[in-house]
Amino acid sequence: MAQESEVAVAAPRENGDAASLIGESEVMQRLRRTAEEVARSDVTVLIEGESGTGKELVARLIHERSERAGQPFIFVNCAALPEQLVEAELFGHRKGAFTDARADKPGRFQLADGGTLFLDEIGDLSPKGQGDLLRVLEDGAFRMVGGTELLRVDVRVVAATNKNLQDAVAAGEFREDLYYRLHVIPIVVPPLRERADDIPLLIEAFLVRFCAKHRRRPKRLAPEAMRLCQRFPWPGNIRQLRNVVERLVVTSSGNVIGIDELPDDIREQDGAAASVAIRPGMTIEEAEKLLIAQTIKHATSNRAAAARLLGISRRALQYKLKRYGLLERDAV
After folding, report:
1. So what's the architecture of 4-188 in CATH?
2. Nearest 5 degrees, angle CA 109-CA 115-CA 117?
3. pLDDT digits 0-9 by tens, 157-177
4. In this predicted model, what pLDDT tens digit does every residue of 66-95 receive, in sequence order?
5. Per residue in 248-280, pLDDT tens?
6. CA dist., res. 277 & res. 286, Å (int)
7. Three-state secondary-structure class, residue 184
8. In 3D, which of 307, 45, 293 has the Cα closest to residue 164?
9. What are the pLDDT digits (tens) for 185-244?
10. Distance (Å, rounded) from C-alpha 90 to C-alpha 129?
C-alpha cells in the first residue's frame, strides 16, 4: 500500500490561504481570481504547472474557499500508487479481498466524502488507474475490492500535473476521455521565471518565516543579491527558492545577505548569461543555437521546461537540438 503520509485530512491552515500564493504580478492576480471563482462551483479542476510552482496550494485554496471547507481534503500522490493496488487505494477493500487484507479499509474516495480529493501527479497514474478513475467520475459510484455493494460518495475531484497531458494523450500514454473529463476547468500555475517581480515578495516572506523558525535575527538580502535572484531562472521554482532562503538564514552570520553568500549556481548562471550576448556578425542560426544550448545548460535541462522558456513547442525544440547537433550534449 502507499504510505500513510500520502493521505492527509486538511484542517484550515495558513498554507491553504490565498496569502500563501504570494505575488502581485498580473498573472498571479488572475490565478487567484480564477481559483476563487472556481471554488464557488463543484466542477472538476485540472491544475497544470511545473514541479515546485505551488499546485497543491491552489488546490487547497479552492477547497477552503468552497462550501466544502471544513470537510476532508485528501491528498493522493498518483505516482506513488502501485498499479496492482490502485483500485484498493482509491476505493478501499473488504477483509480477505487479498492476502494482506486483514480488515476492511476505506479508500481515498470514502475518506474524502463531503470534501475534496486532490489527485497530484495525475499524469503518472497507471493505465488501469486511469480506467478506474474515469468510471467513478462518470458514474459517481464504485465497489470496494472484494465487495458487492455499490457505494456512492459526495466528492469533488481536483487533479494536478507537471506533464503536458495533451502530449501524453497524443503519445497514447494518457486516456483521452479521462483528459477531457478532468479538463473541465484548467488552471495553469506559472513558473517563477515568468513572474520575476514577485521574487522579492516571496524572499521577504520566506526570510520572516525561517528567521522565526530557526530563531535568528531578522535578515534581508542586499539589493544586488536580490537583483541576482530576480535574474535567476529558478528551474525548481518556488520550492527551490524556499530551500535557498532557508539555507541562507541558517548559514549567514550577518543581518544583510550579500552576493558572495548566494549559492554558486545562482552566481555562476548570471556570469554565464552575461557571456552569451549576441555578437555582431553572428548569423541568426548561430545565435539561435547558442541560445538553445545555454538555456539547456544553465536554465533548465528539462526539455519541456526549456521549450516553454524559449517560447517554442517541445517538438520544435527536439528538431532544433537535432539540427544543431546538440543532442549529444543534451543531458535531459
Report:
1. 3-Layer(aba) Sandwich (3.40)
2. 50
3. 999 999 999 999 999 999 999
4. 999 999 999 999 998 888 788 888 998 888
5. 999 998 999 999 999 998 988 765 555 556 677
6. 12
7. coil
8. 307
9. 999 999 998 899 999 999 999 999 999 999 999 999 999 999 999 989 999 999 999 999
10. 9
Q: Which fold does the domain 202-274 belong to in CATH?
A: Helicase, Ruva Protein; domain 3 (1.10.8)
Residue spans per domain, the chain = 4-188, 202-274, 284-329
Q: In the numeric block, which cell numbers belong to residue 56?
A: 497543491
Between CA 164 and CA 50 the distance in angstroms is 10
Q: Are 130 and 174 in contact (CB under 8 A)?
A: yes
Contacts of 165 (CB under 8 A, 6+ apart): 46, 48, 122, 123, 174, 179, 182, 183
Give which of 243, 244, 203, 210 is closest to 227, Cα–Cα: 203
Cell of 219: 535578515
Query: What pTM was estimated for this model as a whole?
Result: 0.76
Grid cell locating 69: 471547507
In sequence order, the β-bridge partners of residue 120 are: 77
- Residues 153, 142: Cα–Cα separation, whole Å: 9
> Which cell goes with 11?
484542517
Contact criterion met (CB below 8 Å) for 122 and 78: yes
